[in-house]
Amino acid sequence: MPAVVRFSPNARKLAPQAGAIVPLGRGARGLRGVVVQVGAPDASGLTEALAQGELERRLLEIGFVEGAEVEILHEGMIGRDPIGVRLDDMRVALRRREADAVLVRVQGAMAEAAE
Amino acid sequence: MSLKSPEARLSVDHAEDTLSRVRPKALRVALVGNPNCGKTALFNALTGARQKVANYAGVTVERKEGLAHGPNGETLRVLDLPGTYSLRARSPDEVITRDVALGRLEGETPPDVMICVADATNLRLVLRLVLELKQIGRPMVLALNMYDIAERQGWSIDLARLSHELGMPVVTTVATRRRGMDKLLAAVESVAGAAHEVPAWCEPSAAQLRTAHGEAERIRKSCIRPPSHPDTLTGRLDSVLLHPVAGVAILLTILFLMFQAVFSWAQPPMDLIKGAFDHLSTLITQVMPDGVLRSLICDGIISGVGSVLVFVPQIMILFLFIILLEDSGYMARAAFLMDKIMGGAGLHGRAFIPLLSSFACAIPGIMGARVIDNKRDRLTTILVAPLMTCSARIPVYTLIISAFIPNRTVGGFASLQGLVMFGLYATGILSALAVGFVVRKIFWRGATEPFLMELPAYKRPDAKNVAMGVLTRGKIFVKRAGTVILAMMIVVWFLSSVPGPPPGALGPAINYSFAGMIGHGLEPLLRPIGFTWQIAVALIPGMAAREVAVAALGTVYAVSGGEGATGPLAGVLHAHWSLATALALLAWYVFAPQCAATLGVIKRETNSWLWPTVTFFYMLTLAYAAAFATFHIARAFGA
Asked: Chains A and B: how many Cβ contacts under 8 Å?
């Protein structure tokens, strides 16, 4: 498994290469991939708000499961937050800091086009 | 005939009575399912108008129960449980769903059969919920609702196999057309006798959730084939409605329309209601002799009931919009678009609509806060809603502005009076955001609720369900708020009219009442913020509703005519008050909890006296501080 790509907090726009593993919360609109891990440890600094396991279970319950296909469809107006995500054949809205707990293996046309 | 006979009670509350007369053996059915699966529509289709909405004891969660008639004419009791993705409850609503399903809720008989309602076009998550519900061990039926849409979109579902895999009957339904209801109830009755298994549910761990998801996915892949040409309508609509610029512009347009409607469409029926009550009051004045009883009926009860009922058109129009936005699937989008802005003030994205409607009146706004699932987010919204400038403040603002602010143009284009009005509105909004921020930072620090929600597919709202929803809201308001608000109105009336003036008294009658005494008593407290004793006296009846203070000031200064005739009163005020006093009163009115009805609704909606008390004191503190600062700053500038 390739190393998780690390970013500076300001690096919002991301054009990673296919196969790279990135937190969903750091992706730009058009990012497509497959969920490889849910409840990534301390990816977001959200631990102050929710117990780590709690966020993981909530993400699982709404359908973020390893193997699910995701695509970022929409970004909010301010700070590109929250994001609207296609999750298999559903649509889910979430804030980027929660999305950071979902690791995604990048695939699809957008990543290739960005190379 | 004794009053307690069933016939007598029937006339009091038909639905309640029918429910209580059902023989205890009637089969109890509970509806569970994900949010947005058409559960409420199915509930409406099963029960028609035979429903009763109340609260579960001790919590604000709504309990909806109704009666359904089975294929052989027998009666079933149907309970509509709040939507959930999991029995691992997070919100108070979901706790109710879990506890009823598990048979743990005190005072609630456990259901005999559970109907899991599923959106047939969106089965991904509900299958895992079905597997979780199965662990409870109660007989279950799966209702694949909105089956017509699924067929139209080209979904292919192997019903026999699904039923076999899940081990329960699977029935297809179209709740909006009442299709499949008999089949569903027949299936319920067929499983009702089945022996209960021992409940084996315990809160699933993340690993168990993953396993259950895997199992649900396997069942889904083996029984369900998605359409070869997936429906793209939702995607196309979202590319416009969730667009960072166009989406926000459309949202603002919708909100503007809604605001207009609540303000202007409601006006004619409101005038009608007000006129009818005024007429009734006049009629009684003519028929009855003058006295305490007449005053109680006219000024206490009739004006009290009238001031409650006058809000009904606004509430129903507001809820018409809210239900349309909810049922079409747009509400989740509005929350998405507003989340960042509202989040900055510690509020949830969904708080936007209730707060906006509070500009018309805080009462529908506070009731509208029901769209927020999380208890803390909802409470924050309820606490700040009364700070929005409601329409009842307008008469007070208009009176004082016309009396004290010169009508001249500033900077060549803006009217000074208009600017002051705008400033008062802006102060209300900014302070609401600030209070939300403080509540979040100080009281509920670190308890940030994640913003994580499904964006459901767009659907055309069903006219019948919308109408039923709006009517239910109207009825709930009249019934619930009516009792508390009416009681408060009578208290305010009592304070303002008892005891009556001694014979030969020269001053206005209110001067001799308890309100007058309280006003005089409060005057030393209010002197530091520049209020005269006349203002202090007028503030007491002003508790009934903000605009009543205008009429009360008229009474105190013995000027004939109340709200309608601000002209002469403005002159009198100008002669009696300094500019600093007038500005301090304006500042007071931005914050002061001068509305018994709002406090009553907060009590009803939070089911506790704590929150109306908190609201009253925090607003009073802000009002006093703001008026104090305004008065002294204005005086320092020589006003």
From this structure: 116
Write the CB contacts of B116 (distance below 8 Å, at least 6 apart in sequence).
Answer: B32, B33, B126, B129, B130, B133, B140, B141, B142, B143
A36 lies within 8 A of chain B by CB: no
Highest mean pLDDT: which of A34-43, B32-41, B559-568?
B32-41
Mean pLDDT of B102-119: 90
Q: How many angstroms separate the CA atoms of B605 and B476, rounded?
A: 11
Residues of B in contact with A60 (CB under 8 A): 206, 209-210, 213
Q: A98–B245: do the CB atoms touch at under 8 Å?
A: no
CA–CA separation, B234 vs A86, rounded Å? 11
pLDDT at position B10: 33
Average pLDDT of the segment spanning B430-442: 88
Token pair recorded at residue A19: 């196969």
For residue B354, report the phi and psi dihedrals to the nearest 5 degrees. -55, -40
Beta-strand (E) ranges in B338-436?
409-410, 414-415
- d(C-alpha B472, C-alpha B494), whole Å: 32
Q: What Cα–Cα distance (Å) separates residue A25 from each residue in A99, A115, B114, B441?
A: 4, 20, 38, 24
Write down the CATH superfamily of domain B12-231: P-loop containing nucleotide triphosphate hydrolases (3.40.50.300)
* Pair B384, B366: CB distance under 8 Å: no
Radius of gyration of the CA atoms of chain A, in A: 13
In sequence order, what are the beta bridge partners of B64?
Answer: B53, B80
Place of tokens 């499961």: A65
Query: Does A62 contact chain B (CB < 8 Å)?
Result: yes
Give residue limits of the domains in chain A: 21-114
Number of C-beta neighbours around residue B455 at 10 A: 25
Mention every residue, 6+ apart, whose C-beta is less than 8 A from residue B151: none
Q: Which of B283, B270, B373, B525 is nearest to B62 (CA)?
A: B373
Burial class (CB in 10 A: 0-12, 13-18, 19+), B565: middle
Q: What is the DSSP string of B413-428?
A: TEEHHHHHHHHHHHHH
Bridge partners (DSSP) of residue B172 are B144
Residue among B54, B60, B71 at smallest CA distance from B20 = B54
Residue of A nearest to B239 (CA): A74
Residue range B143-181, pLDDT digits in tens: 999 999 999 999 999 999 999 999 999 999 999 999 999
Q: To which CATH superfamily is domain A21-114 assigned?
A: Ferrous iron transport protein A (FeoA) (2.30.30.90)
Asked whether this complex has an ipTM greater than 0.85, the answer is no
Q: How many CB atoms lie within 10 A of CB B154?
A: 13
Looking at this protein, which amino acid is placed at residue B111?
Answer: P
CB proximity B238 to A under 8 Å: yes
Determine the Cα–Cα distance for residues B69 and B26; give it in Å rounded to an integer.
10
Instruction: Tell whether A49 lies on the interface with B, counting CB pairs under 8 A.
Output: yes
CA neighbor of B346 nearest in space, from B310, B374, B320: B374
* Residue from the list A53, A75, A90 with its beta carbon closest to the beta carbon of B454: A90
Whether B242 sits inside 8 A of A74 (CB atoms) is yes
Q: Residues spanned by CATH 3.40.50.300 within chain B?
A: 12-231
Least confident range from A37-51, B37-51, B317-331, B481-495: namely A37-51
Containing H/E element for B77?
Answer: strand B75-80
pLDDT at B137: 87
Instruction: Find the CB nearest A57 among B88, B226, B243.
Output: B88
pLDDT band at A112 (very low <50, low <70, confident <90, very high): very low
Query: Which of B37, B157, B213, B218 should be substituted to probe chain A, the one whose Cβ sees the most A Cβ atoms within 10 Å?
Result: B213
CA nearest to B133, candidates B217, B223, B212: B212
Tell me the CA end-to-end span of chain A in Å, nearest whole number.
21
Which of these, B205, B213, B209, lies nearest to B125 by C-alpha position? Answer: B213
